[in-house]
Amino acid sequence: MGLGAMGLARRNIRNKPGRAYGLMALTAILCFVLFLSSFLILSLKNGIHSLSGRMGADLIVVPEGYDSKITGAILRGEPNSFFFDQSVAERVRALPGVEEASPQIFLATLSAGCCSYPLQLIGVDFDTDFSVVPWLSSQVKLPLKEGEIIVGASIEGTYNSEVKFFGRPFKIKGRLAKTGMGFDTSVFMDMETTRVLASEFQKLLETPVAEDERLISSVMVRLQKDADPKAVQTAVTEEFRGEGVYPLLSKQMMSEVSANLQNLLFYVYVLIALLWLLSFVVLMLVYSISLRERRREFATLRVLGAGRKKLRAICLTEILLINAGGAFCGTVLGAAVALLFGPAFSKLLRMPFLTPGVSVFLLLFAAALLVGTLMGPLAAIFSLRELNQKELALVSREND
C-alpha cells in the first residue's frame, strides 16, 4: 500500500477497525433517517397536492353519518357502501348557488379475482360528472362500453384483461396513473353497471339498501363563483332536515388533512433536527479525542518530513472514507425500506401518499449521500485547525 494520503488513510482505518466501523454505523443511522424521513415528507406533500388537484367538487352530499366513510374512500381507498335516493341530486341541483350536481355510487366488493382484499367500486355518471371525468379522460378513452372498467394504479391486471366482481366478468379498459389517494385502489365504471352490482350486493349480505334502482351514494356539487360555500351547506342542511342527508365541505376535508399533515411534519422536523444536532456533537467529540490521541503518530510523520498539508490531507481522506462508507450503507438501506414498505407507510399514516418519481428519488439519494459524507469533515474541522496550530515536532520531543 502506498504512502500517499489515500494509502495511509486506508491503513489507519484497517488498523483501527472498531473506531472506523463505529463512526460508519453512526453516519449510516443518520443517513437512513435523513433519506427515509425526506421520502415520507415528499410523499405526503405530493399526496396533498394530488388531492387538491382532483377535488373538483366544492360540496359533497352523503347520507348522514357517512361523512367519515366518504373521506376514507377518497383519501385512503377504504371500501364502503352507502346509499340514498337519487332525488337528493335533483333537489340539490335546484338549490340557489349550485352550478352543477352529479351523483356517484360507492360500492365495496367482498372479494375480487384481481386482489386478495376488498376494493372500492365507484359508479360515475359520465354525462354530468365534473370532478372525476376530466382527469379520467386525460388518461383513458371515454365513455366506457358495457362491461368495461378503469382501475387504479395499485390494482393488478393488464389492459384488456378480465376481472370479476360478484361473479360478473369485466374488462380492464384503462389504468390510472398513481395518485397517492384512495383512487389507487378503486375501480371506476358507469352508473348502470354499478346499480346492477348493488342489487347483487343486497342479495349477498341479505340487507336491502334500497327499494328501487334509484339509489346513489353521494352528490358531487360545484358551486357558482359568487356563491358562499357555507351558505349553500346550510341551505342543503335545511332542505333535507330530518331526512338523513349531510353536506360535507371539500375545503373542510382538505383543511383537516392539511392540519394533520402539518402536525406530523412538525414532529418529523424536530426529530430530524435533534438527531442531527446530537450526532454532529458526538462526531465532533469523537474526532477531537481521536486526533488528540494520535498526536504522537502525527508528530512522527512531521519528523519524517510530512508537512501540515500532508497531515491534513491524510486526516480528511480518512474521515471522508469513513463517512462515505457509512452514508452509502445508510442511504441504500433507507432507499430499500422506502421502496419495499411505501404502501405500508401509506396505510399506517392514513393520509394521501404519493411517492416521488424516479428522478426525484435519485436526487434525494444523492443528497442524503452527499450530506452524510460531508458531515464528517465539517465535524472535524475545528479539531484539525487546533492540530495545525501546534508544532507537532515539539509535541514529539515532549513525549520523548
UniProtKB/TrEMBL annotation:
<keyword id="KW-0812">Transmembrane</keyword>
<dbReference type="Pfam" id="PF12704">
    <property type="entry name" value="MacB_PCD"/>
</dbReference>
<keyword id="KW-1003">Cell membrane</keyword>
<feature type="domain" description="MacB-like periplasmic core">
    <location>
        <begin position="22"/>
        <end position="238"/>
    </location>
</feature>
<keyword id="KW-0472">Membrane</keyword>
<keyword id="KW-0813">Transport</keyword>
<dbReference type="InterPro" id="IPR051125">
    <property type="entry name" value="ABC-4/HrtB_transporter"/>
</dbReference>
<dbReference type="InterPro" id="IPR003838">
    <property type="entry name" value="ABC3_permease_C"/>
</dbReference>
<feature type="domain" description="ABC3 transporter permease C-terminal">
    <location>
        <begin position="270"/>
        <end position="383"/>
    </location>
</feature>
<feature type="transmembrane region" description="Helical">
    <location>
        <begin position="319"/>
        <end position="341"/>
    </location>
</feature>
<protein>
    <recommendedName>
        <fullName>Putative hemin transport system permease protein HrtB</fullName>
    </recommendedName>
</protein>
<dbReference type="InterPro" id="IPR025857">
    <property type="entry name" value="MacB_PCD"/>
</dbReference>
<feature type="transmembrane region" description="Helical">
    <location>
        <begin position="21"/>
        <end position="44"/>
    </location>
</feature>
<dbReference type="GO" id="GO:0005886">
    <property type="term" value="C:plasma membrane"/>
</dbReference>
<keyword id="KW-1133">Transmembrane helix</keyword>
<comment type="function">
    <text>Part of the ABC transporter complex hrt involved in hemin import. Responsible for the translocation of the substrate across the membrane.</text>
</comment>
<comment type="subunit">
    <text>The complex is composed of two ATP-binding proteins (HrtA), two transmembrane proteins (HrtB) and a solute-binding protein.</text>
</comment>
<feature type="transmembrane region" description="Helical">
    <location>
        <begin position="264"/>
        <end position="287"/>
    </location>
</feature>
<feature type="transmembrane region" description="Helical">
    <location>
        <begin position="361"/>
        <end position="384"/>
    </location>
</feature>
<comment type="similarity">
    <text>Belongs to the ABC-4 integral membrane protein family. HrtB subfamily.</text>
</comment>
<dbReference type="Pfam" id="PF02687">
    <property type="entry name" value="FtsX"/>
</dbReference>
